[in-house]
Amino acid sequence: MKKILLFVLITVLILPVTSVFAAGDQPSAWSKDTIQRGIDLGIVPERLQANYADPITREEFAELLVNVAFKKLEMVERSYEWTKEMVLEKVTIDQPFEDTDLDHVKLAYIIGSVNGTSDTTFSPDAYITREQAAQMLINTIHKSSILSYATEDDMSYSDYDQIGEWAKPAVSAAYTLGLMQGSNGQFMPRKHITREQAIVTIIRVLDYAKYITLQLRGDITVFAWFEDLTYNVGKDYVNVSYEDEGEFSLSDKTLRELWFTYNATSESGVRYDHEKAIVIYGFQSNLLNRTYTWILDAALKGEGAKVDYGYMTIETFTENHLLEFTLKDIPGYFNALVGHVYGYPKVEVDPKPIN
Predict the structure, then answer these.
(1) Is pTM beyond 0.85 here?
(2) I want to staple 55 with a disulfide (CB 3.0 to 4.6 A). Which of 17, 127, 309, 329 is the partner?
(3) Which of 24-32's residues contact partners 24+ apart within 8 Å by CB, and which partners?
(4) With contact defined as beta carbons under 8 Å apart, do 232 and 226 qualify?
(5) SS3 state at 335
(6) Strands annotated E in the chain
């Protein structure tokens, strides 16, 4: 008996350790290793670890997107980064959905991955198509990724004409990033994307796309160390408010260093002011204040300014907020890593003050 037990123990120890998927519920061979990786990284929740050939719903895909976005933030070598809990605490959705209260849907909306199917509904149980999935992907990661649009000839999809005009910027960007490239010369834009296809695509986001800072509504970069800021978001806007907590903070420390480092403020003769410093330095990747100085100049005078950046307008020191970002409904995406361009096709950002 002892010999039998010893043999069984040795056999168990020398066998390779592998994942055990439920019998009869195996993912396809081409996706199995990638899905296992997503499970190991905590990106794929337990409820999506089955029925891999089923179409994925809007809220399920939203959860995958949120999980991969925050996993990428976790991988950035910074000592102070956003968590899901921090975002939900600091960001308010002004018009929440009436048909779902799920945190991952709220987060997907906040970071710009998704919009509603109406102003008040999300339709969480609706299945998504491949072109919708492409749009949700690029909505999330466009600002920080090196984004370019593949041409119709580049993609050579025989069903290119079936892709919705609204989806073509996302489909072409997803192609160039290697996130979604179709099969057998087709993209199949209106076919439902399955769970296993969605998971594999999400892991490609982890590998091929950049997401190094949190973006509100996909475009407005916000840093976690601004612990004295709160945000309100809607479908086409992000509003920023300052809450004076009456104590010296990491936000104070960082902005004071910037104020006395750069000539625009250090040589201005203006005393350090925390709210002015937030406006001047807190959103540099969007405002480009050191290149286009209308907002900077007005802030040093203690005045507000309004500037049109092409893909959005920004107003500072308004009656209700420190900054108000209003996003425009235009085809294509803003991208910061290829020279500050936006739209489909791309045009360079050329800010102009609004009187």
Answers:
(1) yes
(2) 127
(3) 25/50, 25/51, 25/52, 26/52, 27/52, 27/196, 28/52, 28/53, 28/196, 31/196, 31/197, 31/199, 31/200
(4) no
(5) strand
(6) 91-93, 214-216, 220-222, 229-234, 237-242, 306-308, 312-316, 323-327, 341-342, 347-348, 352-353
Q: Over the stretch 221-256, which tens digit does the pLDDT of each residue have?
A: 999 999 999 999 999 999 999 998 878 889 999 999
Average pLDDT of span 193-214: 96
> What confidence tens digit (pLDDT) does each residue in 71-124 have?
999 999 887 899 999 999 999 999 999 999 999 999 999 999 999 999 999 999
Residue 82 CA: distances (Å) to CA of 200, 310, 312: 25, 28, 25
Sign for the pseudo-dihedral over CA of 56, 58, 60, 66: positive
Q: Which two tokens stand for residue 168?
A: 């073509």
CA distance 151 to 303: 45
Residues 6+ apart with CB under 8 A from 257: none
Which amino acid is located at 334 in the chain? F
250 by Cβ neighbours in 10 Å (0-12 / 13-18 / 19+) ranks as: middle
- Tokens, residue 300: 């040093």
Pairwise CA distance, residues 50 & 353, whole Å: 54
